[in-house]
Specification:
The chain has a seven-stranded mixed β-barrel. The longest helix has 54 residues. It is elongated. Helix 8 runs antiparallel to helix 19 and helix 17 packs parallel to helix 20. By secondary structure, the chain is an alpha+beta fold. About 1% of the residues have low confidence. Among the domains are: 194 residues, no CATH class; 200 residues, no CATH class.
């Protein structure tokens, strides 16, 4: 009977004895299960809490979030599990020498992972159920849905969380068994105290890391459009991640060597021990610091960009021209008058006012060497020449803007970021034109969002606009853009009434033939809140996951280094090193290395700014950088304060270990 309980007792005793490393690990696993349950639960109930577009988009965002958290949990638990396994391998080596075979050790590991899976899964599901209502109310608050105080437990969400983490723990067990199987008893015994050799060729690796980092930064700085930002985003991120790891692993070794050569710095009690010890474990230490840097960057970018999206919703809604918007292909003035009259009749009773009407053509165009022209992209065109061109007549421009611009037949007025032309430009089928540059954006255009740089051109008359329209039709054929008319009015109506009016207007206009796009301000608001609010909610959840992971890496880094340095500091105490000098040495290590990840994360965030700005500009429909700067600065300051406080709290664990030889 006792033999049957031997393995679970050894597993449980080992976990209790090593509770300093097991407790944070269990808390991490529990938190991952909890978050997975909550996200799955919110996805399942979003249809009840939210309506229409908001529900659909939120389901998509949360489904994506589940996949991200599951993948991240697998990678991160593998990473942190290696810390736990290293601490336990010495004990397994002792069991092996005392006559216990690898199969017996495998049984202990099986029970340990069984206990870990059971405790974290049950704890995660219980806390997930407990906090699910709070998360639900937060989601409703962010997206403007309707909630109630009823409490529900989602069985499907529970099964999904159990299935995901059953697979993860099984993979972790297999990985640990392979590691134990491949090591001899002597290697297991020495695993806790084995040192790290500084990587060879650190200068070459440092230069390679700098090149990768420079390449990633260069890509981020040279993006010229939202399309470039989307296409090259993962390329830039991959280059920056590789560069960060190489620089922290090999560059930090080079830094320690340089500090050792600086006699005025190195031969001081506060610096001597910490610099020497850091050098010989920097390969692993650098990887940990690089991981903290990447996770910190994820937190900063995720929170700042999604917060910008969410808190910029009102400014985006304010840019919508009118309460009720109607867009349809332009035929002629008579047809437009009939459509507008029908729309006015439908809105009668809601005080239609502030009528706005204009015609416009939005088409893809190439700009090269002072010429704007249309050309079918067969895959060989240089996308750096590709622009989104908005055209309208000066009559419509004056009507919308309230200005009184006069253009002769050989002049055009142009707005664009930068100056794609000189004093004159050759416009396809219209010939050479003298340019009048404007500093006013055409932000009233219903479709002013574009993945490519935008140029806005005011033409002298409708005849020239028609010629451009016919030209791009001949070039693009079935892919040609329509010549549209926009008609909008303000009404005295609630959001629900506006939605009902837009639905009713579609029925009213169907007798005119063709197609009509009818949207109310309330419809736009729903669209913005569903996408931006959903991304913000997901961003907050992911930031919590990434931040919690960074904290755990900090803790394990301090813990493992404390155990490694404990014996060394004990020797230094015996030769006269005081407790004050030990503390000063530890603080030296903090100032020398540990805040480097935060500084590097801030640098990553700074260089990522152009790429983030382009992406946010597309989603927010804004063309200036102000909406992102404030959230980014606030986020960095708050995170820096949190980072510092977390580090100094975890550093106490390090000081406690090295202040006395503690093997527990």
């Amino acid at each position: 009977m006792m033999k049957g309980f031997l393995y679970p007792r050894l597993a449980f005793t080992g976990m209790v004895k090593n509770r300093r490393i097991y407790l944070p690990y269990l808390l991490t696993c529990t938190a991952m299960v909890m978050i997975t349950y909550i996200i799955t639960y919110l996805r399942d109930i979003s249809g009840k809490m939210l309506d229409g577009t908001r529900s659909t988009v939120m389901e998509y965002c949360l489904g994506f979030g589940i996949a991200v958290i599951a993948l991240f949990s697998l990678i991160f638990l593998f990473y942190t599990g290696s810390f736990v396994l290293k601490r336990r391998r010495t004990e397994f080596g002792l069991y092996n020498i005392l006559g216990m075979g690898k199969g017996n050790i495998a049984r202990i590991l099986l029970w340990e992972y069984g206990f870990t899976a059971l405790i974290s899964t049950v704890g995660g599901l219980l806390t997930g159920v407990l906090f699910s209502k709070l998360a639900e109310l937060f989601m409703v608050r962010v997206l403007g849905g309707t909630g109630d105080m009823s409490f529900t437990v989602d069985g499907n969400a529970m099964l999904a969380a159990i299935a995901i983490f059953a697979v993860i723990f099984l993979l972790l067990l297999v990985f640990s068994l392979i590691r134990i199987k491949l090591q001899s008893p002597l290697e297991l015994l020495r695993s806790r105290s084995e040192g790290e050799r500084p990587p060879k060729g650190s200068i070459i690796l440092s230069l390679l890391g700098a090149l990768f980092l420079a390449a990633g930064y260069a890509i981020a700085l040279t993006v010229r459009s939202s399309a470039d930002a989307i296409v090259y985003f993962f390329v830039a991120v991959t280059a920056v991640i590789i560069g960060t790891y190489l620089l922290f692993i090999s560059g930090s070794v080079a830094l320690c060597r340089a500090l050792q050569k600086n006699k005025r710095y190195y031969y001081k009690a506060a610096h001597f021990f910490s610099t020497a010890s850091m050098r010989y474990r920097m390969k692993r230490n650098g990887a940990g610091l690089a991981s903290i840097c990447i996770l910190s960057t994820m937190v900063l970018v995720t929170v700042s960009s999604t917060a910008c999206l969410y808190f910029g919703i009102n400014s985006s809604i304010e840019r919508i021209p009118r309460d009720m918007s109607l867009v349809f292909p332009y035929r002629d003035s008579e047809f437009s008058s009939l459509v507008q009259k029908a729309a006015d009749n439908h809105l009668d009773g809601y005080s239609p006012r502030d009528r706005l009407s204009y015609r416009y053509l939005t088409a893809s165009a190439l700009i090269d060497d002072g010429r704007l022209y249309f050309e079918m992209n067969d895959g060989g065109n240089d996308t750096s020449k590709l622009w989104t061109a908005n055209f309208m007549t000066v009559e419509d421009y004056n009507s919308v803007s309230g200005e009184n611009i006069v253009l002769s037949s050989d002049e055009i007025m142009l707005y664009a970021k930068g100056r794609p032309f000189g004093d004159t430009a050759v416009i396809d089928v219209l010939g050479e034109k003298r340019l009048i540059y404007s500093d006013k954006d055409f932000d009233f255009l219903e479709n002013s969002m574009s993945v490519y740089p935008t140029v806005c051109i005011v033409l002298p008359d409708m005849a020239q606009l028609r010629r451009l329209y016919d030209s791009q039709c001949n070039v693009y054929d079935i892919y040609a853009s329509e010549l549209y008319e926009y008609y909008g009015v303000n009404v005295t109506a609630s959001g629900e009434q506006q939605k009902a009016l837009s639905e009713g207007m579609v029925s009213v206009l169907k007798d005119f033939g063709g197609y009509f796009i009818v949207l109310s301000r309330a419809d736009w608001e729903d669209s913005y809140y569903s996408l931006n609010g959903g991304l913000f909610f997901l961003g907050v959840v992911l930031a919590i996951v990434f931040g919690f992971s960074a904290v755990l890496i900090m803790y394990y880094k301090q813990l493992t280094e404390g155990y490694e340095d404990s014996a060394r500091f004990d020797i230094m105490r015996k030769v006269g090193m005081t407790a004050f000098e030990i503390k000063k040495s530890v603080n030296s290590q903090v100032l020398t290395v540990f805040f480097a990840p935060l500084a590097m994360a801030g640098l990553h965030m700074l260089f990522a700014y152009p790429m983030i700005e382009k992406s946010l500009g597309l989603l927010l429909n804004v063309k200036d950088s102000a909406p992102y700067i404030v959230p980014a600065v606030v986020c960095f300051v708050l995170y820096a304060a949190l980072y510092a406080s977390v580090y100094f709290i975890t550093s106490r664990a390090y000081l406690k270990i090295v202040s006395k030889t503690d093997d527990g």
